Amino acid sequence: MGMRIVVLPFLATSFVAFIVTIASHNAINLPWILGKNSLGKFPLWSIVLFGPFLMLARAYAMIKRYMRKESVHDMIVEGLYLGGWPFLAKHLPPGSPSVIDCTCDLPRSSFIPADEYLCLATWDTRAPTPCQIELAHVGLVKRDLRGNRFMSTVHLAREEVLASCVQF
């Protein structure tokens, strides 16, 4: 009986890792499976089902930020910045930027207003498609947001997002 109690959390975590691995495969590519909505929040079912993965993703992003000495964000052109997940307000560029979030596993930080936030859910190391970038542009223009734009990415996707934006 005691051994089952110890094994069940590991079994559940392994099952979640298996689902995420399959969903993030290049041939399948289902970032919406984690349930992140357009406001950057995760529903209760997603937190219950994918909780171990979501917590590890947050912890990894925070630890990586402190371990590496890379810049928090880079200015691509005047008014457009590219950077990692802003879990602190000081990680945002100056001014009050609109945030285009290119992650599917990290939530919108509470200091980012919902009306200046747009989620383009993609897996780590992948860039948004040209269709998603067009959607982001139309969404920001429709909201008539002026000022800085900040694209939030994680891992190696920074270079891929930049290449996609340049190609578009």
What does this structure look like?
By secondary structure, this protein is an alpha/beta fold. The chain has one domain. Helices cover 42% and strands 13% of the residues. It is built from four helices and five strands; from the N terminus they run ααββββαβα. It has helices at 2-23, 44-67, 130-142, 157-167; strands spanning 73-77, 80-84, 98-101, 117-119, 149-153. Strands 1-2-5-3-4 form a five-stranded mixed sheet, covered by helices on one side. A hairpin with a 2-residue loop joins strand 1 (73-77) and strand 2 (80-84). The model has no long low-confidence stretch (mean pLDDT 81).
Summary of the model, kept short:
Keywords: Membrane, Transmembrane, Transmembrane helix. The chain crosses the membrane at residues 43-61. This protein is an alpha/beta fold.
Question: What is the strand arrangement across the widest sheet?
Answer: 1-2-5-3-4
Domain module count = 1
Rg for CA atoms: 17 Å
Mean pLDDT: 81
- Contiguous runs where pLDDT drops below 50 for at least 5 residues: none
Compute the separation of the termini in Å: 58 Å
The biggest sheet amounts to: 5 strands, mixed
Q: What letter string, H or E per element, gives the SSE order? A: HHEEEEHEH
Transmembrane segments: 43-61
Keywords: Membrane, Transmembrane, Transmembrane helix
